[in-house]
């Protein structure tokens, strides 16, 4: 679901769905994470391919107050999409990722880690 959608009710339902899934994985009652965080989103799809840069903001918003206090804490983002009927290689998948792949249905894999490497790559300036 894109943050840019005109269907606000559908967007809010999507955020609730993301939050409920996160609550399931965050069930130990831990407080929100503090400090700098890295967010990784992998979109596994079948036929309907979404524009991946538009799906991140609703995910970030859905996790505020549960996984972290504010999405300003996210300093690094990695977004990927992979078509399920194509060949790709995954090394050392987590149990959650294995479960998602075993269903052979469209899904999002979301991972958040603390203290990302604060390395600056010098590519070019504009």
TrEMBL record:
Classification via InterPro entries: Endonuclease_RusA-like, RusA-like_sf
A Pfam family per the record: RusA
Domain of life: Bacteria
Name of the protein in its database record: RusA family crossover junction endodeoxyribonuclease
The species this protein was found in: Phormidium yuhuli AB48
């Amino acid at each position: 679901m894109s943050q840019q959608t005109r269907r606000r009710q559908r967007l809010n339902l999507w955020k609730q769905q993301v939050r409920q899934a996160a609550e399931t994985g965050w069930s130990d009652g831990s407080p929100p994470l503090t400090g700098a965080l890295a967010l990784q989103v992998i979109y596994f799809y079948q036929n309907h391919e979404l524009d991946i840069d538009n799906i991140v903001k609703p995910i970030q918003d859905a996790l505020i107050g549960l996984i972290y206090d504010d999405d300003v804490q996210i300093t690094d983002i990695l977004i990927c999409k992979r078509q399920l009927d194509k060949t790709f290689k995954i090394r050392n998948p987590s149990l959650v990722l294995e479960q998602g792949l075993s269903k052979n249905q469209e899904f999002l894999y979301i991972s958040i880690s603390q203290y990302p490497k604060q390395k600056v790559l010098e590519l070019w300036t504009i």
